[in-house]
Amino acid sequence: MKRIVALPIVLFTLLAVSIVNIAAVAQTAEKSGGKKSTKTASKKKTVQMEKSASPSISKALATLEEMNKTKPMVESLEEALKDPENVYRLNLSQRELTSVSPEIGKLKNLAVLSLYGNQLTSLPTEFATLTNLLSLDLGKNRFTEAPKELAGLKNLKVLYLSLNQITSIPPAIFKINSLVTLDVAGNQLQAIPADIATLPNLMELNARVNRIETLPQAMTKMKRLTVVRLDINPITNKESKRIKKMLENTDVRVAY
Predict the structure, then answer these.
(1) pTM, whole model, 2 decimals?
(2) Pick the CATH number of 51-253 from 3.40.50.2000, 3.30.720.200, 3.40.50.790, 3.80.10.10
């Protein structure tokens, strides 16, 4: 099963939709000519612009999409180590791995890595040196906490931690300021920490199928947040309404 960098495509779609919406709103305002319509359109346009990724993030996502089209996918670490400087995409998914070799740190230009569907509980210290990583899939492993090595991945845009046994989101995650998509679905999370608001570029949060009952008020500061998925969490109807009101400019999906 390959699912490497699926979400960035969704993000590009969201950005494209935002641009189309801005154009449509502006056109409606021009045709109406009314002060009230113009004011409303201007407000909607401002909201959409706030949702857009920063220029540096947009450029990085474009680079990621281009790599997925042009760079070959290497299917083993042994093969990758034959020419480590020219490896950009590596698929080690579903190999029954219980550990990752420290030699992975030699892949200095690695941008896309899938370790999905293994039996990992930790990562080697050398993993933190993979500073060119843009997309990392650690889904469906046996992590009980997010590895501290993730804090060193300063350029990471997409992080999958779904289908593990993680009970809380550690501070290490909140040090990745470049993060655009965070997927923690299918874990044992009981809360989303207020520190998530320190991720200035986060656009998509998937926290489906956990034990979350509420979201922190601090998330109102997340101006680029576009989609929040909270399906299948023990969130009451009252709390669901509060969350949607709090994040009124975000697509919040709550269903049990």
Answers:
(1) 0.83
(2) 3.80.10.10
